[in-house]
Amino acid sequence: MAIKVVPSAFLKVFFDIIDQIIFLSNLMSLVLGYWGIRGRGNSIKYLLEYTGAPYEVKTYSSPEEWFGKDKVAMASNPYVNLPYLKDGSEV
Ligand SMILES: N[C@@H](CCC(=O)N[C@@H](CS)C(=O)NCC(=O)O)C(=O)O
User: Fold this and answer.
1) Residues having CB within 6 Å of any atom of ligand 1
2) Whose CA is nearest to atom 7 of ligand 1?
3) Ligand 1, atom 9: nearest CA belongs to which residue?
4) Right CATH for 30-91 from 3.30.450.40, 3.40.30.10, 3.30.2110.10, 3.40.50.700
5) pLDDT digit string (tens) for 19-39?
6) d(Cα 71, Cα 80) in Å, to the nearest integer?
7) Residues 77, 81, 83: CA angle, nearest 5 degrees
């Protein structure tokens, strides 16, 4: 059986691409969570816009959605509140 040798230049390009994907997926994972009002969330939105950081907004429209679901799911941070900023798995 012939053993094929993968050129190290190919492996370097391959792992560089993987690094880029991980880096970009971390950038994409910023989530600002807040009620559907400006309130305390808007100044954070201004900062995110100013820095150019890619982010998504998670808007809560019912107390059940926040208190009954997501707050419980994010309980690894005992201080989690609205607004929150989620970066990957960190809140
Ligand atoms: N100490 C927090 C208080 C945040 C707070 O009171 N958030 C309100 C909206 S402005 C809320 O509804 N929090 C949801 C919760 O208590 O889980 C802060 O200043 O950021």
Assistant:
1) 39-40, 71, 81-82
2) 82
3) 82
4) 3.40.30.10
5) 777 776 666 679 999 999 999
6) 7
7) 125
